[in-house]
Amino acid sequence: MLIVNDLSVFYGKIKVVHNINFTIEEGSCVALLGPNGAGKTSTISSILGTVNSTGTVNFCNQDISKIQTEDRIKLGISIAPEGRRVFSNLSVFENLYLGSAIRKDRAIADNEIENWFNIFPILKERKDQSAGTLSGGEQQMLTIARALMGNPKILLLDEPSLGLAPMITKQVFELIETLKTKGITILLVEQNATEALKLADYSYILNSGNIVAHGNRSEILKKGDLMSSLTGVEN
Amino acid sequence: MNIFQSSKSFKQAFWGATLLSVVIASIGVFVIFFGERYHLRLVYAAYVNLLVVLGLQVFMGNTNITNLSHSAFMGLGAYIAAICVTPIQIKKLSLPDAPWGLNAFELDALSSALISLTLTGFLAFLTGLVIVRLSGIGATIVTIAILVIVHSIFMHRTDIFKGKQAFFGIPQVFDLSSIIMISIFVIFVARFFRESKWGIQLRASSDDEKSADAMGVNIFKLRLVAWTLGGLILALSGICYAYYLGTISARPFYFSHVFLTLAMLILGGMRSITGAVIGTILITFGLEGVRFMETGPTILGLKFPEMLGLSGIALGAVIVIIMVVRNGGLVGNFEIEQLFIKTRKNI
Amino acid sequence: MIDYVVQQSLNALSFGAEYALIALGLAIVFSIMGLVNFAHGEVIAIGGYCMMVMAAIAFRNPIVIIIGAIFASVIMAVFLERIAFRPVRYADATTGLLTAFGVSLILQNLFLLLVSPRPIAVTSMYFLDWPIKLGSIRISSLQIFETVATLLAILFLVLFLKRSFLGIAMRAASLDFEMVRLMGIRANRVIATAFAISGLLAGIAAIFIIARRGAVDPTLGFNPVLKAFVACVVGGFGSLTGAVLGGFLLGALEVGMLVILPQSYGGMKDAFVFAVIAIILVWRPEGILSPQKEKGDKI
Fold first, then answer.
1. What are the 10-residue block averages of pLDDT along chain B, 347 residues in total?
2. Which of C25, C17, C23 is nearest to C255 (CA)?
3. Contacts of B313 by beta carbon, 8 Å cutoff, 6+ apart
4. Where exactly are the structural domains of chain C?
5. B and A touching (3 or more beta-carbon pairs closer than 8 Å)
6. Which terminus of chain C is less hemmed in, N or C, by CB atoms within 10 Å?
7. Contact A86 C297 (CB under 8 A)
8. Range of the domain at A179
9. Which chain A positions have a beta carbon within 8 Å of C297's beta carbon?
10. CB distance C95–B317 less than 8 Å?
């Protein structure tokens, strides 16, 4: 569904991602792991078209590497960004409402907000509260719910567990598990490799802008030393 | 040379300023020998504008905060010097109702200039205390406030400044050669400031206020130094203006002059002294051409219509085009000595 | 005495309404793209010139002229965004500010070149102005129209920003513009809407300015916008509430100055107003109601 081919990302003249390739099958959950500064978020940004990059990104048999960010979103790529970035002065409801921007059937989308409220009861409780007043975990739920409002074909999750307490982190990963069972295609970027490896069908390990390893959970765990130094996962 | 970070930056500043001085002096000398009387006036005015642009550069170029009050400080410098230097007999006539005995004393040209510099510099310092604490747009708005306040004082206190009417009888102290020398002096000052520790720290902090703060750079103090130094140069430009023309009025120290000199600085590139000089030269010559077209001349038998406003359009277009196409100006961070000396890349 | 106070308060309200109207137009653009739009005054002037042209080609119906003027201002604002401000959209604030200055300079001189440097009479809005006597208080109908129109404009703007999808998107854009794009909402659409609204407000302001002055000249909008800027900054640049508050505060200040200052100092009104503003900024450098500084919450 998403094929990234020979992708490099540049900030000015500095190259931060070096000619990487990876593929995400429809309905699968792929994790992009690695330490801080490995180029994970840069890779996500290049899929969205908010940074300078070379190489091609192919989505649903269409080359999207030359089109505008907004058009990529419209094709069905949705993002729950790093740092959550909820619109803090807007209410929870308004945040979700904006999430349905790309849909034509806005009336149906309104009903769906109700569905999300059932999955995230806490959001329903705080529906009219401004998003900035939510706790970190609640904001993360909101970010994910907002990203799902547009009925995306693929969901990009950038560091969903960053800065959250272990209890909350667990809830977030449970939520991702639920989404996975619903058949949503997911690209998960994480530093918390232990949890991410459990979830993902296939994982790529990035370091200094290169893919240094890939495979399913057991294959990756076999590479013991490399893994523990890069991701902190012990066998 | 402990105001410089290294002897290298001193050397660079020195050679750069010297080269620009040669350029500036040769244009002036050429005009002195070959120009007609009315050319002299035009070129003199251009030198005054050069001083204004340099004064503007010292603050704007190093802090990246837009200043629109420069013409007000120039006006203050001009008026204060003019009031001090004009002979009593003339002042009795032109300022019969002046308060505080302003029409009952006269001073020599040098003391008048010094008083003007001191007072204007002090006012710059006082306003600077406010300006440097504000962030970008707030600071710009306050500079507009200064411009409007000073202008309304000029216009309203006709007993001191004569407002719209001409303040006349200022003895002619300077000629073209004096202003050439003053320009060279100011080029050195501005260039040395740019290359000094303060200048470098200021430019670094204008890019990233927070990290400069974290590095222990006192931005407020540095900005205040730049603002006051700029104010002094602007006062000097005003003095030069008054000391040559003999009459001044409030009108030229307002928005149209603000835009004119701003366009000069922006065209060349406000981060560099070379840019300031080039911008001034280009706009001065370019504008003469445009003004000629404005009057509706007959060229090759073709009668052009009178086109008032053309020069304003040209200035506006210069500003917009530079901002859109190349917002560092024509030369960006380039300084003239880099043509001759190999330097590591300037920040 | 009471009458006098009421009279002056009404004056302050209508002055303030005009500044608030213009300041809102500036603030809405600033809040979304960080542009200090100095060319806003020329958007007002275009409204004035449009009235002049329409009156000249024999449009008698004032409603048509009003609609035409507002329409012209909206088109102008959107047009300026397209040709001048889009290229500097992601540049720093100084670049935007200077571009706007340049645009303002070009337009003022174009009016001067194409029309006339002198004021030209436009009398079609005089019908809005007749004296009203309430007891011993004398006011003009224009003041009432102006205040009411401003309040209505604010009300509609609030409704738009709270209820419509695009309005909510605009509020979101003022917090985190890139995130709005990442929702698939077109940046161009949001910004064009912001400019259209600012043009609309400028058009309404133009009608009242023309109704009061009865003439249009190239600097018609320049001075009011200068003041409106001050209102924005005082209220807290980028805050819409702040712009309205700043506008009314400025109106009160101006009328206050006229009342307090002796007749002979009337010409110094602006100087005193600007001085007070500078003092307010020293007291609160970010303005009275500065918006929360925020670009998403990065940990």
1. 69 79 82 77 86 91 87 91 82 75 75 88 89 78 86 80 78 82 88 84 74 70 90 92 85 86 88 88 86 76 75 87 83 75 54
2. C17
3. C105, C106, C109, C110, C113
4. 2-221
5. no
6. N
7. yes
8. 2-231
9. 83-86, 88, 132, 139
10. no
